[in-house]
Amino acid sequence: MESAPVRVGMLGCGNVGAALLILINEQHAAVARRTGLALEVGAVAVRDPGRDRNVPVDPGLFTDDPASVVANPEIDVVVEVMGGIDPAHRLVVEALERGKPVVTANKELLASHGPELYALAEGAGVDLLFEAAVAGAIPIMRLLRESLAGEPITRVMGIVNGTTNFILSRMAEEAMPYGEALAEAQRLGYAEADPTADVEGIDAAAKAAIMASLAFGVRVTADDVYREGISSITSEDIEFAGRLDHCIKLLAIAERRDVGDGPNIGVRVHPAMVPLDHPLASVRDSFNAVFVEGEAVGELMFYGRGAGGRPTASAVLGDLINAAGNLRRSHGARIGNLQPAVVTPIEELESAYYLEVEVDDRPGVLSRVAAVFGDHDVSIRSMEQEGLGVEARLIFITHAARERDLRATLEGLDGLDAVRSVGSMLRVVGD
Amino acid sequence: MESAPVRVGMLGCGNVGAALLILINEQHAAVARRTGLALEVGAVAVRDPGRDRNVPVDPGLFTDDPASVVANPEIDVVVEVMGGIDPAHRLVVEALERGKPVVTANKELLASHGPELYALAEGAGVDLLFEAAVAGAIPIMRLLRESLAGEPITRVMGIVNGTTNFILSRMAEEAMPYGEALAEAQRLGYAEADPTADVEGIDAAAKAAIMASLAFGVRVTADDVYREGISSITSEDIEFAGRLDHCIKLLAIAERRDVGDGPNIGVRVHPAMVPLDHPLASVRDSFNAVFVEGEAVGELMFYGRGAGGRPTASAVLGDLINAAGNLRRSHGARIGNLQPAVVTPIEELESAYYLEVEVDDRPGVLSRVAAVFGDHDVSIRSMEQEGLGVEARLIFITHAARERDLRATLEGLDGLDAVRSVGSMLRVVGD
User: Fold this and answer.
1) Close Cβ partners of B117 (under 8 Å, ≥ 6 residues apart)
2) Residues of A designated catalytic
3) Which positions in chain B touch A282 (Cβ < 8 Å)?
4) Which of A84, A121, A393, B253 is deepest in the core (most CB within 10 A)?
5) Could you report the per-residue pLDDT of B155-189, keeping only the tens digit for each?
6) What is the complex's ipTM, to 2 decimals?
């Protein structure tokens, strides 16, 4: 059954790379039996080839010259797990141009240069696979590319950042303030010393761009993604959400909009209120999940580890087996030709909203507040009032409204004498 | 981009078949753009070709001779959605022997003749794809075959029967007795007039056999699967489970056992107590989900619609695109050579258990009951006692124990004078 070995060239050997080398070694026989493929590591490019890495690889295979790995005619498949844009971008382009399939876990690279790289791979007829770049161990890329290739997908919503999900879970379950939950995430190694990329949604926006490209077959980069993070979410927001049987999740949302000619999509990352009986609400701690809605398939959800060396390496190995198999069979895994997309700005997208407003507690105020909503075509679904002495807190949930109209409503409320402050605004998703 | 059309021959045109024909028609342009494939329906075999089916297909393509569809040299790919063993078995064998890829949604056929058909497809180098046979719209087959091809999977646990999950959800959420929940499922069309195949776990056992084959690369048929249904689950069981922060789910479980030489597996279907914070507990109503545990990947869960014409047709279309693509590229989707498996009988498998025992409420009884557990090496994790006048109810949760020992414990308890009755026994999973 076993054919000639497929030689793998690795660029990088950090957490994921080391876990991959161990997994390739452990699973060699099982992979050969089930797929007929013999994977063999041919070279590993690292910064310091002399360092002991405790991986089952001949030390002579380490090199500090990644370009030599890509150029080596003995190398059949390139695995890029070095991260960052440069030199990863140049090396991946070089490999594809040489007709070598590439497996990468580099979301940053794909979110900025994805459309260019997909087209290059498509043109060269070689695989560019990147399961590990979005939602770690969850095989969402393959599902979007293959299982759902014929499905009219309408929306993809993901909890794709484990750090922020951990923080929001702690805030909800332990009634912890944001700062304390962040500190715990940092202590446990879930958050970096500078947590900006996670908590401001930058990491999630990169993944949103990749998911939108594959779900809708369009060219989207991270710059197209509207983005809000979780750093302004308060314990009170979480408490009010709970009272309304909702939780707060940072969601990456890509959706098809049936307007105009050609593909028109919305793509955004922001905290959202999610009803507690929605499957996404059950995704806790640092887990990830992607919820897919399609016209035929209905609702699907995929849940798993979003990060970590071994889970991510498992996803890379799945891609590597796929690429190696396609190599032996001389064809590539197709992405298809991506179309340019009209990305609808957030102002034109529709959502239901949660709004918290503090007002003077005197007669006539509620009617004036409600008039502001009506003036801007925002219809109120429910309202709760809570007295706080001389002031009162109003909690509104609206019906679906345009973001532009909601923002105008916020401005209108700000201009009312009786309104002391407009507190949190959160989009409500999944009701 | 578009190559010559791929001609599809359909065997059967019921719910799923009709939904597939509509979906192929609707998605024709999108599929061509994304995959370069032009799918064209070439023939549809049905019992009554004269009947109006309201599908976008030339009426002249209907025939009552399924063998002619398989034999037709104009037909490139065969889609079997007729169900049942005969004549589906003969037709699928015939198609594979002619070198035609087959897409089927027929779990009954695969659960009884799967290993034979997989070997036939493998030998002929053609695709046999059957995503829709297990958990409907959830692409679990592709994940096991491809994404997780290199993963050391340890256990797969599925809620793979929507009818029983609906019944158990109603019993838990509306405190409905079993009979009433079953009647509602029948009223809503979720359960058949004769519900045996669903409620006794026969349907789930067929799916367990298929999942075990793919997860562990071994030959397993439905006859190898230990099976218990839900018809004896009472409202009290559900209530006690709830008090212990568990719910009751009918699970199909396939697990690897690290004993002996060669692959040794356990495969079973039975109701199980699942902790409320386990992802499977959030799977409600008629939804399905499959939970996968692997050494590298950690925990994964896939959630979606288990049945219904459109969701199932979406899964069939995904397979059809895959098979059509492989046809153009002249290679098949590999299952690999399945190994014979040692299937461990249920008596040797380990689990934690929930036991409810009614005893005389007098001194010394608990110690005699506990001694029976100890005599059979079953260790008690927790016990709750509830007085009921002259008798008392004891609720035990055990540590992991062998089924054989647990059964001996039950017999021992039955033989005690002070024990009035041994009530429910449920396996506890996911703690």
Assistant:
1) B92, B93, B96, B109, B110, B128
2) 207
3) 279, 281-282
4) B253
5) 999 999 999 999 999 999 999 999 999 999 999 99
6) 0.84
